[in-house]
């Protein structure tokens, strides 16, 4: 038998028959297995309500990974699935936990695992507190190995509910044992923001209000709510995207350089940004935030339904499917620099990108074709492309007083000749290594909710009379453009425009 690795663990997935497990967790674990990260000393226990045998569960796992290929190696779908076990589970019944304890301990023996446990919560958040308390009371957390709790979003639906959830899980798990997933933090180019900033003397001296005019972050989806109308009605784009992913990207762009690249140093710097975010009170919401909801529209010759026509959506729904905002960070580095964010469903492209627009030259000696000098812009492509583009001006070949814009491009996928690992693959590996850097600490979650809550309360109290206000397949409502026009700026969908 192989020497057991220190990190070898039994991974318990709560909600193992669900969509997240099938689409993200099993393929990511398979990739880690193919790369040798998981070796042979691991076991996965799937628990969910359904009555399944081990064989039926393995067959589901097998089907979920069958189209995922092992690079450079023979595929190992059968061997991989043989590490999976299933237990029908009722989260409220003590016996379920006692059975789970027996099963995980027998897997320790079978796979030579030193009583390490990863508990992955891939089910509705209302069960997390109950599960945590029962894991403790039924003795599943005893033993010499580590216990880690992985929690999916949404982490509450406002500050109060997030705090309640946190209090419940903290009765059992310490902060260091809790891994709150924000899958954007697992993306290659989100992780690259720190390297671009702190490993390039070209950028860091300019990264402040003396040289940067504004920063724009756009995260657009082409899909509507699909089958998740019920969930989305209660969430909306503000809770689903802004409270977590968008604010995490803002923190990484705005944080001070950490003293070192340790988990706590990095997270502490990110938290300071959230503390410096200018609070928006209910009377100011319209100055800083724009909400949108899609109506019927067209894309690629296809008619797309409006949000209110989707399944499980109220036909008078007040839920926003689009948000644009102007965020101000009131500290020395960023005073006066707006961070504009926008995110929505049913937009023309599925993409996330960040644009850092530098200030104009103090005096324009040169002009381009349109009679102006275009700004320098650094673009960070988060997805689907991964890379950076630097927009510069160079002399026009014909006329020595004219400039022409050029782009310096770096494409990460081309460089590595392969796709970067999926965010979930990276994050699962981090949990196994015990590295919580790319997970949200409680104070980050708390501050983000405290920032968001006045806006969601104002929107809930005041129905948007203009809804629906943007066509499916468009870039959102006109008000999102006006938000920047007030500041004499505009969204750069592509700086070439
Ligand atoms: P899902 O509805 O597809 O699956 C839920 C799972 O929980 C199923 O396995 C079900 O059997 C199990 N379950 C529900 N009630 C149970 C009970 N009382 N006892 C035992 N098992 C029970 O949900 P999903 O899409 O897989 O999402 C799971 C969690 O992950 C949710 O919190 C969701 O918000 C979050 N999430 C999902 C995605 C995604 O891509 N699906 C992305 C981000 C976050």
Automatic annotation (TrEMBL):
| Catalytic activity, reaction form | D-glucose 6-phosphate + NADP(+) = 6-phospho-D-glucono-1,5-lactone + NADPH + H(+)
Record domain Glucose-6-phosphate dehydrogenase NAD-binding: where: 12-192
* Pathway(s) annotated for this protein in UniProt: Carbohydrate degradation; pentose phosphate pathway; D-ribulose 5-phosphate from D-glucose 6-phosphate (oxidative stage): step 1/3
Q: Which GO terms describe its biological process?
A: glucose metabolic process; pentose-phosphate shunt, oxidative branch
Q: What is its EC number?
A: 1.1.1.49
Q: Which amino acid positions bind NADP(+), per UniProt?
A: 15-22, 49, 90-91, 153
Keyword list (alphabetical) reads: Carbohydrate metabolism, Glucose metabolism, NADP, Oxidoreductase
Under the cellular component aspect of Gene Ontology, which terms does the record hold? cytosol
List residues of the Glucose-6-phosphate dehydrogenase C-terminal domain: 195-492
Which of this chain's residues are annotated to bind substrate?
183, 187, 221, 240, 345, 350
UniProt keyword Nuclease present: no
Keyword Mitochondrion carried by entry:
no
GO MF, one term, reads: glucose-6-phosphate dehydrogenase activity
Catalytic positions are 245
Instruction: Mention any Pfam family matching this sequence.
Output: G6PD_N
Give the family this protein belongs to, as stated in its UniProt record: Belongs to the glucose-6-phosphate dehydrogenase family.
Task of the protein: Catalyzes the oxidation of glucose 6-phosphate to 6-phosphogluconolactone.
Protein's UniProt name: Glucose-6-phosphate 1-dehydrogenase
Record the organism: Guptibacillus hwajinpoensis
What does the record give as the organism's lineage? Answer: Bacteria, Bacillati, Bacillota, Bacilli, Bacillales
């Amino acid at each position: 038998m192989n020497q057991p690795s220190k990190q070898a663990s039994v991974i318990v997935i709560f909600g193992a028959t669900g969509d997240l497990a099938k689409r993200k967790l099993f393929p990511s674990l398979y990739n880690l297995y193919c790369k040798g990260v998981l070796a042979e000393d691991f076991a996965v226990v799937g628990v969910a309500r359904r009555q399944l045998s081990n064989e039926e569960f393995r067959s589901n796992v097998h089907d979920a990974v069958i189209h995922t290929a092992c690079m450079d190696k023979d595929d190992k779908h059968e061997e991989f699935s043989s590490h999976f076990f299933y237990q029908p589970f009722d989260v409220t019944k003590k016996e379920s936990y006692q059975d789970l304890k027996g099963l995980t301990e027998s897997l320790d023996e079978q796979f030579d695992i030193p009583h390490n446990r990863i508990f992955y919560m891939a089910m509705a958040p209302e069960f997390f507190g109950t599960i945590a308390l029962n894991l403790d009371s039924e003795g599943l957390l005893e033993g010499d190995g580590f216990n880690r709790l992985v929690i999916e979003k949404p982490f509450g639906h406002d500050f109060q509910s997030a705090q309640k959830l946190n209090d419940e899980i903290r009765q059992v798990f310490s902060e260091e044992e809790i891994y709150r997933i924000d899958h954007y933090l697992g993306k290659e180019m989100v992780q690259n923001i720190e390297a671009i900033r702190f490993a390039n003397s070209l950028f860091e001296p300019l990264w402040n209000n003396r040289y940067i005019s504004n920063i724009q972050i756009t995260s657009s989806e082409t899909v509507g709510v699909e089958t998740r109308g019920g969930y989305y009605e209660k969430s909306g784009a503000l809770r689903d995207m802004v409270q977590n992913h968008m604010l995490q990207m803002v923190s990484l762009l705005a944080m001070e350089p950490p003293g070192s690249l340790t988990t706590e140093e990095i997270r502490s710097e990110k938290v300071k940004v959230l503390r410096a975010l200018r609070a928006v009170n209910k009377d100011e919401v319209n100055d800083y935030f724009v909400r949108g909801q899609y109506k019927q529209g067209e894309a690629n010759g296809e008619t797309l339904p409006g949000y209110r026509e989707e399944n499980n959506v109220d036909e008078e729904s007040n839920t926003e499917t689009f948000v644009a905002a102007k965020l101000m960070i009131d500290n020395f580095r960023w005073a006066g620099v707006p961070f504009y964010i926008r995110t929505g469903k049913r937009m023309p492209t599925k993409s996330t990108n960040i644009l850092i627009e530098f200030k104009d030259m103090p005096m324009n000696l040169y002009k381009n074709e349109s009679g102006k000098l275009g700004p320098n812009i650094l673009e960070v492509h988060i997805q689907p492309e991964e890379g950076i583009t630097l927009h510069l001006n160079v002399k026009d070949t014909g006329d020595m007083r004219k400039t022409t814009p050029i782009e310096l491009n770096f494409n990460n996928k081309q460089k590595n000749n392969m796709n970067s690992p999926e965010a979930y693959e990276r994050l699962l590996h981090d949990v196994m290594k015990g590295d919580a850097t790319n997970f949200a600490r409680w104070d980050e979650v708390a501050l983000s909710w405290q920032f968001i809550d006045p806006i969601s309360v104002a929107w809930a109290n005041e129905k948007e009379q203009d809804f629906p206000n943007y066509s499916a397949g468009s870039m959102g409502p006109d008000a999102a453009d006006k938000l920047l026009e007030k500041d004499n700026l505009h969204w750069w969908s592509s700086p070439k425009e």
